[in-house]
Design brief:
Length: about 300
């Protein structure tokens, strides 16, 4: 139990904002739900295991048995009862947070997306894909938090996200018409504006940061509105994925740091819903949610 608790703490530390890693299975360790504390989640990896089979009655054998039971009784039913009936899928990708945390987080997100997309096609080398009875023919890769950027940067966010999934999409044969990348926000928490700074006009976003968010050392109370210049994403996505040479990092740190853009992302409160004079609440503002629905469902509704 102590090993499982330590492993869970490790996964939580990897997921924390300061690291923002994405490849963090088993997923139920982070969201246990009604399985919290059960034997199904009481296992962990073991270091330095020798080659061969686990000795009968050993801790190794018990951990292996519980892991196999987790796959059989937790993962497989989830895929069979939910994903196996789908033929359209939307994958939410928080590329901005990974960019903000650096190249390690970006590379990890790319691997996580490859693992996810590999499950969407029968015949791939994933034991999960064997659980599918239907073929997913459309996948929308949604670059979330588009409202955290000015619209001038949305196309750059889409190109970076497309680069994150491009290799995995080619491997499973979904590049092209079956896969779309789109920058969106299902709830728009900001509005756009411009400000003059040192004689230059800067595109900014305006919103209310949630309580506890920090900007330049200032802590917000969740009530005050502010304008933020979120920074510029690079025009060429490859800049973010180029390997950093160790010698260059030691001798010219400013050139290495320049490859990763300086971004300023905080979490915003959702907007208050406005009412008409007749007392009807207006719809929640969004960015491209209608286009996402058109891609996923438009042919079925035509």
């Amino acid at each position: 139990r102590r090993l499982a608790e330590s492993f869970t703490a490790y996964l939580q530390a990897c997921k924390a904002d300061e690291r923002s890693l994405s490849t963090l299975p088993p997923g139920r360790f982070l969201m246990p739900g009604d399985l919290e504390g059960s034997p199904a989640l009481t296992f962990s990896p073991l270091p330095d295991l020798p080659a061969g089979r686990a000795p009968k009655g050993s801790l190794w054998a018990m951990m292996e048995r519980r892991y196999e039971a987790y796959k059989t009784h937790v993962v497989s039913p989830f895929f069979r009862e939910h994903f196996a009936r789908l033929d359209r899928q939307i994958v939410l990708v928080d590329a901005l947070q990974a960019i903000n945390r650096g190249q390690e987080a970006l590379n990890d997100l790319e691997q996580a997306l490859a693992d996810v997309l590999a499950c969407f096609r029968p015949g791939t080398n994933s034991w999960l894909s064997s659980l599918f009875t239907r073929r997913i023919d459309r996948v929308l890769i949604a670059a979330t938090k588009a409202d955290h950027l000015h619209h001038e940067s949305h196309d750059r966010l889409e190109r970076i996200t497309a680069r994150l999934v491009s290799r995995a999409a080619e491997r499973i044969g979904m590049s092209g018409a079956g896969l779309e990348v789109m920058a969106l926000a299902s709830v728009r928490a900001t509005r756009e504006a411009t400000v003059n700074h040192d004689g230059h006009t800067l595109p900014v976003i305006v919103g209310i940061p949630i309580a506890g968010e920090r900007i330049n050392g200032e802590v917000f109370d969740g009530e005050r509105k502010t304008a933020i210049f979120p920074g510029d994403l690079p025009e060429d996505p490859e800049v973010l994925f180029e390997p950093v040479d160790g010698h260059l990092k030691a001798s010219k740190p400013t050139e290495v740091e320049r490859a990763m853009p300086e971004l300023n992302f905080v979490r915003f409160r959702p907007p208050h819903l406005e009412e008409t004079r007749g007392g009807l609440k207006l719809s929640v503002p969004h960015i491209r949610l209608d286009r996402a629905m058109q891609f996923l469902l438009g042919d079925r509704l035509a």
